[in-house]
Specification:
By secondary structure, the chain is an alpha/beta fold. The chain has 11 helices and 12 strands. Helix 1 packs parallel to helix 2.
Length: 329
């Protein structure tokens, strides 16, 4: 395919990974994602239909996107999700999903049928009471059961663990212990700022602190070779079946090789998780316009790192962004 048909930003980065938010609805209310007062949910007519998601995905595929991750809100609450994922599988791209796991058991057989094996499971704690505190819902036992079921079916499971001081930071080595016998990745994510989540870095746990905590208990922490475009640094404790990873968005940004584009549930392109600017894709699609030029032009506005916050995170900047739940995990 010609270079003009690839999505390339002004820094020469080729973008072949699309994250699509299917909905801003979720069956949990995690405080770092959903503002305490809730959010104004999108009107149904403003949300991409399943057919529009498929058509837009096809256009991205034609622009050399080879990986699509489905996110939310919670993607599995989207009506007729099974139909959508079957159709997307026909595009010949690698499909991945990020989910809270509550409804996972309903779709694992389908995932195995269509070849979707890579599942990121949001799980911030291994303590049931703390899970209720964080998510404001009591689904812990169901989530843990579905995690085990996914592992039994040989899915590639990564646990997304947002670390917050005074909440779950004492559980770091509990998750490391989980990797001793389970073939999964415990992925620790630095607490990131979004509208309404009352972020300040005093609540954060950074990359080096995580490594210090793990190394103080476990000998033989090995840094692994990271896949190209990886958003995490990957490690293994010697002798453990699984791995652990760190997403250091705050303390050690990894933007140099960014290959990701985000599409919100209402059809807006976001070039970066922290981007305040958005490009409407759904409007032109519904208007019968060609959307390839819109996609290619949108990526030209992408900034090099964290939407221009190259040195430090700016509170005013992220408060002008969406809340996490309406961007997509």
């Amino acid at each position: 395919m010609t270079e003009e048909k690839r999505i390339i930003d002004n820094f020469g980065r080729v973008h072949n990974y699309l994250r699509i938010s299917l909905t801003d609805r979720c069956n949990l209310r995690c405080f770092y994602c959903m503002p305490e007062e809730g959010i104004q949910l999108m009107e149904k007519e403003h949300i991409m239909s399943l057919e529009e998601i498929i058509e837009i995905s096809r256009k991205f595929r034609d622009l050399c996107v080879d990986t699509i991750r489905l996110t939310g809100g919670e993607p599995l609450v989207r009506k007729n999700f099974g139909y959508l994922v079957r159709e997307l599988a026909k595009l010949g791209v690698t499909l991945k999903i990020t989910t809270n796991g509550i409804l996972l058991d309903k779709y694992l057989d389908l995932f195995r049928e269509i070849g979707l094996k890579k599942i990121n499971l949001s799980l911030d704690t291994l303590d049931k009471a703390r899970s209720v505190f964080i998510s404001k819902r009591d689904y812990f036992d169901r989530i843990m059961k579905n995690m085990e079921l996914a592992l039994e079916m040989e899915m590639q499971v990564k646990l997304n663990i947002v670390l917050i001081k005074g909440v779950n930071d004492k559980e770091i080595n509990d998750f490391i212990e989980l990797t001793k016998y389970k073939d999964l990745t415990a992925k620790f994510i630095e607490f990131m700022p979004f509208k309404g989540n009352k972020w300040d870095w005093s609540k954060g746990v950074g990359e080096q602190e995580i490594l210090d905590i793990v190394s103080a208990k476990y000998d033989g922490v090995q840094e692994l070779k990271n896949p190209k475009h990886s958003t995490s640094k990957n490690f293994r404790v010697k002798g453990h079946k699984g791995k652990f990873a760190i997403v250091s968005t705050i303390t050690n940004p990894f933007c140099a090789e960014c290959n990701r584009i985000r599409l919100t549930a209402d059809g807006k392109i976001k070039n970066c998780l922290f981007s305040n600017s958005e490009t409407d894709l759904l409007g032109p699609l519904r208007g019968g316009e060609q959307i390839e030029p819109v996609i290619l032009n949108a990526i030209k506005t992408k900034k090099y790192s964290r939407d221009g916050m190259d040195v430090k995170m700016d509170a005013a900047h992220y408060e002008n962004n969406r809340s996490m739940i309406s961007i997509g995990g």
